[in-house]
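Now for today's protein:

——
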Amino acid sequence: MNRYAFTLPAALVLLMTSLTGSATAQLARLVAVKTAAADVIVIQAETAPDAAAPSQAPADWAVDGATPLAVGRGSVPSNQAINLGAFYPVTMFHSYYLVLPNRLSVGRTYSIRTPFGQTTLAFNDAATLCESLKVNQEGYWPRGRARYAVFGAFLGDLGSRKLPELPTYRVRSLVTGEDVARGVATYWGDDTPSRKVGTGEYIYRLNLAQAPVGGPYVVIVDGIGRSHPFSISAAASEHTSFVHTRGLYHSDHPRAVGQAHLIAYDTDSTNHYGFLSGPITGKPRPMRGGYHDAGDFDRQLTNLQVPAWMLNQYEAFPAGFTDGQFDLPESGNGIPDWLDEALWGVALWESLQDPDGAVRGGVEAQRHPTYGQVDSSTDNLVYRTYAKDAPATAMSAGLFAHAARLLAPFSKTRSEQLLARARLAWTWLEAGPQAELRPAQRMYAALHLYLATGLAEYHEAFLAAARYLITNTTWPEVYNPRYWNFSSLNGGQVFAPYFFAYLITDKPADAAVQAGFRKILKQRADEVLANVAAMPYPIGPVGGLGYGAGTNQGRYAEPLILQYRLTPDLKYTDAVSQMADYTLGLNPLGQCYVTGLGAHPPSSICQLDSYLPTLAGKAPVPGIVVYGPSADASGAVYQKAVWSQVYPAWYSLPEQRRYCDGWSLINSNEFTVHETMALNICMYAFLAGQK
């Protein structure tokens, strides 16, 4: 029995069954009966914290009175309560794989004895869910020419299953009950050998390109089972974009927050990524806008990239954005909602600009809020600003000028105010500590001041930095969307908003500089194209899994999207649409890595505004893209309390399978707006906007 006092959600009813006359009782709840292959039944059960997993000894199981040939098991945490002292209670989810001597027969009802009670399976391949079938659980982009489901069977500690023959499949409409497409799966290959970013599966692809636009559909593999429902439609793409974009609005820094977040006290701290508890050097300043960096309430320098990416996306594809599109408080003001949301991100840096033009490097408190006790409306920590900062000032100058130019057709007054802020920031930089400023940051500011004013002095400053950066190959002063962090941002990494507008401007431009950046962009795009074609699942060119590298496909899609703007070749959009499928369920775990989307989204994320609603039986805040699979596991007690309960053991699993729910597993279930959300938001907005 559980030796800790613990209250489970009301929905978790526990069944107690005595095993073979033993006085020991096991706590378990039957969750589902599925299939994994033509001869494999999957029994899924949930156990309370600190309860042992039910037995997987074949003798303790029976199907129609016969002992299975083998019983495999895979176990992961499925939910987590707040910590009780040193104990971080997690509810466990167990999958038992019953291997039968014969294939399942359609129309037959199987009686199944488990260690925690009796159940049945009325097998119907058109109705019985097969966990080995993975699809985009929301909907495929209707214009994509490369759409597919994947069959890959992984049976816990029994490993992967290769099929004896290529299976046949059907795509069935759930509206009419008719089959709209048929086919034979193709064998992609063996991905079971241990390798970096592996899946551990024998991969079979089921082509969905012949299925017509519409839905909802399911894929049925004959004699095995069906997939989760999905659609192929513009409406599904638009809904996916809507949920992702609103994730910025109502999760990270909502328009209405507690009083503690509406003011900040100035400090002279230059520790731009640490807690702030030093002396206050100024009066409280009103704060508005921006995004909480992650699951707590700081607002960091990395957040500068979020509105920059959004502005860049709008400039490249303005026709995809309208007023009222995302149901924001600002909807109806005559400005496209996408710009309104970007302007909310810009507003933080307006709040942090001093009268002399300098911009401070972000906002932080003396510690993190106590998890599970407060949300953004009740947090009462004292928030302070970092010191004036040259990189923050340069990037803010670029941001202000970029926003001013794009906003000019909608609000001349607001546009002029932002441009004045940009010029004031530039003046401070010109008179300030140039040693702290990297060429990329200066290039960003100069580019957008030039495009907003047409003045030669800004153009010359842009060209001086650009000529260096198009030939430089030393990290981090390069355009490499595969990876970035605070250090590379601060150290002068090049981002697309720093140069892309120069490639499409109608103002006088240097042809050699344009050609240099076009070459770099195409090179990055072609690298992604090659990777998408080579990988069993469309994860993108991941160097290593961790901190969103496996769930932020938007970072890999960005050069493809921008290259498509320059050269509208459908091979680029095909690759983008495939990568967009990955976080929505087309991955080895069949896991949607975005809250509020798909049949199997995260249920226990690390976000203060989600924990209390989750405890009350509600879903987490929608639109959050979690970090997802992580190759490495943290040794921190609160993280190990979750990942150490995974079975088979974490480090024995293929890397793309190293994920589970549990809010204190930060490496998998936290997020940041710049690492996991912003570029995914741009990717899904691009697809939704391509009619």
User: Anything to note?
Assistant: The domain at 235-584+672-689 is CATH 1.50.10.10 (Glycosyltransferase). Residues 404 and 415 are 4 Å apart (CA to CA). Residues 1-25 have pLDDT under 50 and may be disordered. The chain is about 30% helix and 15% strand.
